[in-house]
Design brief:
The chain is α+β, with helices and mostly antiparallel strands. The protein is built from six helices and 15 strands. It is globular, with a radius of gyration of 17 Å. The structure holds zinc ion (ZN). Zinc ion binds next to loops.
Length: 268
Amino acid sequence: MFHTIQKGSLEYLTADALEGAIHCFSTRYGGVSEGQFSTLNLGTSRGDSLENVVKNYRILGAAVGFTPEEVVHTWQEHTDIILRVGKSDCGKGLFRNQPDVCDGLITNEPGVALVCFAADCTPILFYDPVQRVVAAIHAGWRGTANGIARKAVEKMIAEFGSRPEDICAAIGPCISQCCFETDMDVPQAMLRAFGGEANAFIEKRGEKYFVDNKGLNKLWLTRAGLTKIDVSPACTMCQPDRFWSHRYTKGYRGSHTGIIKLPEEAAT
Ligand SMILES: [Zn+2]
C-alpha cells in the first residue's frame, strides 16, 4: 500500500513493500522552482535553474533521508539498459558529468541514492533486504514492452545473488489506463512481449486503445517470482496539479522521481 507523507508544503509518497529502505516517489509539492517547474522539479535537463533543482533535492532529501551529494541520476532514452553504480558515481547528473545513457540503476553500496525520472512513464523501485540491493528504473511503454522491469530482477539475481521471493517492488504514479490512449502500435508491442496475457491490460474504445502500463509491469514482476509488490493508484494525467504529466503539459514540465537508498546496516 502507498502512503502520502506531508511535511509542511512538501508531499511525497512511500510504499509499504519497500519498508526499511530509504525511499520516496516525489510529487510537485514542496519545492522552490517556478512556472512550469513549480515547485519540486528534480530534473536538470528541461531548463530549470540548477540552483533551484539542488535546493529541491536538499528539501526532499532532508525529509526522506538522503543528501543531494549522494544522488546518482539516470540518463533516460527509453532503453532497457540498467547500470550498476556505486559511491564513485555520486553526484552524476547533478554536480558533475552527465551520466551514461540508461533507464535503470542498481547498487549494493550504502550512501548512494538512485534516482529515476517520470512524468507519465512508470517509475519502479526495488529493494532486497537480504542481499542489501536497491534498484530504480523508468519504464515507458517501450521499456515495458522491452521488459526492463524483468531485467532489473534478473540483474539483481545475477550480480548480487538476490532471490526473487526476497525482492520487494513498488510501481509509482504514472499515466494510468484511464488516460493512456494509444494507437495500434502500443498494444501490438505488448502482445509481442507478453503474448495473449497482455489482452487483459488493453481496452479498445472506438479506434483507440487504452493500455495499463502499471498492470503490465506488475505482470513482469509476478512472472519473475516477486510476491511483495505495491502499485500506486495515482494517475499523473488525472492530477496535473500534483504530478507532471508529459501529455497534459504538452512537454512543458518538470520531472518527478522515484528515489531509493539502502538503509544503514544494523549494528551487530
Ligand atoms: Zn487518468
